């Protein structure tokens, strides 16, 4: 049973297909490939598992592939050069379609490369992790990291379609899987309290990777995100809500060194910190903060700051985060479960208390 | 007397101001700067001449600058990293405005960096060469080179405005100046026969850098280009006419090594080659081919292929040029002076004869 959602973005609209065994469905690919040339971008972990399946589905095309090293620490302009090298060495024209086969890092880099190659060629997202299926493959944000900040160099660039094959989740390791659950929980917190309740009820099914529960959670997450993105493609307003947990989270990722803390783990902690700050502002009850912390724990996610990050480290790292306007740190906070807001009108002392609490033992 | 043209691109429309002493006109800048932060991107040749003037005009802003090495050989992703490094080290936010102060290379790199930094920040083009004033600052094409092809990595990204200060042309060396005249002549050849006639009459004035003649030529060139770009921003159709001389020219630039042959010099030769092929197709008279060659010579431009490029080199280099669709080389050719066409329907033998003629002594 394949579910299909549509991301409504005018002439950049595209479908998201969610279901089992999609990688071998040639028609799902070919409906979105205009020319005769295809470059598959994947990594050394995913390639042995799924590259041949996709190649078989596309054997009518002139196929090239590039296999990148696996990990957030490789999401750089230097590694992206390997994609351009392959495109040029293989003399692929501006009619080429790029297929991103992998997790969020592959999607971000292959998508950004597609945005830039000959000033823009089409691409298809084939996310193979839970995180990328519910988050990075929806919405057209592509980027690479800079040593001084995550996702600082990139483009808004929409794919032709997204194929989320739930079979690929079977091979995910537990940390990667839980990291994806953090983004799923995020949608409930932002604007979908009903979904948050459902997640509390079904977390043990999800953690055991029950296929039906997973398909439902992925579809609901994509729908929630697609709705927000359709309202605000270029993040002028409500789209910034999707950054719930991300300002704290990016600081945690950067401060602990790319690759040491998974993205979903970092934003899980970031969401708990945002809840703590929201509670200090009198917006969230202690009971709701506990529910938020508990659902993270149920999803096998961390809720404490790792390593030796200090309050000063946080302030320093958050100031270069891109959710800053003219020097003022804007945060996504919670008025309630299911009601996130963008605020630069919180109490600075409360922020200091939150940072002090979470870094007390560091 | 400042002339102002408008490039009509819907909500991405912008003005081009052409005149003397524009660099010190604060108002021309501030009308197009939204935040409080400005990064000026320039190079080691232009900085000593004009950086202080622009800084003085902008002394109400938080100003940062980055000075890149000068030359087409530095138009690479690696050098563009220096722009990102400066942006991040200076903690400039997504409210920053980037000012490109220099020739086409600076405009292409600063514009592409603006397109990518935090997925897009505004930028202002301040072209200081004739070539960039009439060509690269109009139309929103930004890019860097790859060792295997020119402008292979880039974005379509429009500036907030273009300030073409004709005073800056006084400091141009003769080769750079003539290189700009090649693009001016190109507009006459593409679709403006009246302008071509005017250029034939006024070439000696232009070569002597007569201010009034220059202002007229720049404004007419920008107008011709702006009209074509407004019809076809993303080069799906008529915009490709602007590549007259460029397929041959890019092969000459790449084959002779970036930096050895200036862009305008290479496309001057490329236009003469396109005229030769058009004559072999029976479209252009011998007399018109001679007029085209003569106007290049009058502008102090080369009309013969430099170095040791062979016909095989040309075929090899042209095949990766981006004006290729599914393996077939498309060329911009001339039905007449002032009537360029995009064609993949010419005689392959005639192309071979043109290449043989122009590479006979190599």
From TrEMBL, chains A, B:
Chief site of localization: cytoplasm
Cellular component (GO) terms are:
cytoplasm
Q: Which InterPro entries match?
A: Dehydroquinate_synthase, DHQ_synth_AroB, DHQ_synth_fam, DHQS/DOIS_N, DHQS_C
Indicate the segments forming the 3-dehydroquinate synthase N-terminal domain, all copies. 66-178
Report which reactions are catalysed by this protein.
7-phospho-2-dehydro-3-deoxy-D-arabino-heptonate = 3-dehydroquinate + phosphate
**Ribosomal protein keyword on record:** no
Provide the cofactor note recorded for this chain's UniProt entry.
Binds 1 divalent metal cation per subunit. Can use either Co(2+) or Zn(2+).
Q: Where in the cell is it found?
A: Cytoplasm
Cofactor annotation: NAD(+); Co(2+); Zn(2+)
Q: Which residues form the 3-dehydroquinate synthase C-terminal domain?
A: 180-324
**UniProt keyword annotation of Iron-sulfur present:** no
Q: What Enzyme Commission number(s) does the record list for this chain? A: 4.2.3.4
EC top class named in words: lyase
Q: Name one Pfam family in it.
A: DHQ_synthase
Q: Where does Zn(2+) bind?
A: 183, 246, 263
Q: Name one GO molecular function term.
A: 3-dehydroquinate synthase activity
What are the alphabetically sorted keywords of the record?
Amino-acid biosynthesis, Aromatic amino acid biosynthesis, Cobalt, Cytoplasm, Lyase, Metal-binding, NAD, Nucleotide-binding, Zinc
Q: In which pathway does it act?
A: Metabolic intermediate biosynthesis; chorismate biosynthesis; chorismate from D-erythrose 4-phosphate and phosphoenolpyruvate: step 2/7
Q: Which residues bind NAD(+)?
A: 70-75, 104-108, 128-129, 141, 150, 168-171
- Gene Ontology biological process terms in this record: amino acid biosynthetic process; aromatic amino acid family biosynthetic process; chorismate biosynthetic process
Q: Which family does it belong to?
A: Belongs to the sugar phosphate cyclases superfamily. Dehydroquinate synthase family.
Describe the function of this protein: Catalyzes the conversion of 3-deoxy-D-arabino-heptulosonate 7-phosphate (DAHP) to dehydroquinate (DHQ).
Q: Which NCBIfam families match?
A: aroB
Q: What is this protein called?
A: 3-dehydroquinate synthase
This protein's species is Methylophaga nitratireducenticrescens
Upper classification of the source organism reads: Bacteria, Pseudomonadati, Pseudomonadota, Gammaproteobacteria, Thiotrichales
